[in-house]
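Shipment paperwork, digital attachment
Item: protein structure file
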Amino acid sequence: MTTTMAEITAVLKQYYIGPIRDQLNNATVLLANVKKSSKEVEGENVVLPLRKGRNWGLGARGTSGTGTLPNAGNQKYKKATFATKDIYGRIQLSGKTIRATKSNKGAFLKVIQSETVGCTDDVKNDVNRQMYCDTTGTLTLAGTGATSATVPVVSSQYLEEDMIIDFNAGGGGSSTGCVIQSVDSETQITLTAPATWTTNDPITISGVISGYELNGLNLITNNTGALQNLNPATAGQAFWAGNVYGNDSSPTPLTEDRMQEIQDAIEDKGGKVDCIIGHFSARRAYARLLVNLKRYTPPQVGRLKGGFDYLDFNGIPFTVDRHSQRTPSTTRMYFLTLKTLGIYRMADFDWMQEDGAVLARQTGVGAQEAYEATLVCDMEFATDARRHNGKLIGITP
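Attachment content:
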């Protein structure tokens, strides 16, 4: 009688070929290319002095030399102020797991190294995503209200398997701590258990409510709304408006003139666009434009800080970042003056160790043989010249 593989599976040894292959996209293009500063941070607050108006105590008086002198004037100033946000990452390891992975004989990598390095990558990945958003924490909006494990969404761009999410947590939503089992399409996810939501409920990372996350480009480039305690709708603060061209509700094909229009608008106000950034779908729209214009000679190719490749538009680097917003029906491009944007922080990411150790052992009632560590950075993404940045939205993907 012939012995089959099914009959001996239980006694066969498993041979895993190391090292572990990373299946995730960890590129953080925007985070890598903005300045990081701590010198402006005092305590929790940052104050950025801004010159907003000229001295108009001037004027011509003809040829006689006897004209009345202009009334004396002065420069006009405002200040932008904001507090840093608290960004965390947390890991927990069992003592047995640590012992079992001390050498390559037991595992391909040590669990302490794996979790600390991986957590750092994951936090920076989420910071890069926040840098495109609007501080509300909204990842997407839920579709028609229901109770189900299958959830329609406006866009699944920022959703991933195993992510823990809340539905409208800041507005009294009833379903929190939901786990994504799968991302089925650009407009649907499946949870591990049924949840209840109402139409257009904001979906956030669990525990995040509006105001917790960083200011992002979607907010910074807006031409309306408050930012850093200044509002263009307030008298004397009209200078604090970004540049918005296009309409997400009515997407149209990309044209060179649309791109030139927003660049001109920013530079007319004193900015100097030195980076254009968008999703891969925006790059495809730009590539189609080049083909339609019969530019068979490819644009100049270069490399940004962090090793990220780019094409060019008018000599301006145009690069891609997966976190730049897109939906199945629309995409966008950000036109940036990078020197006006920055991460303001007390210090770089670091592990809490004020008690002398990164790993802290669980103690007290109900404690297990486990160790915890917390990664932290107090920071904010901000601008010192909102009008020198803009976005071209409503581009057909």
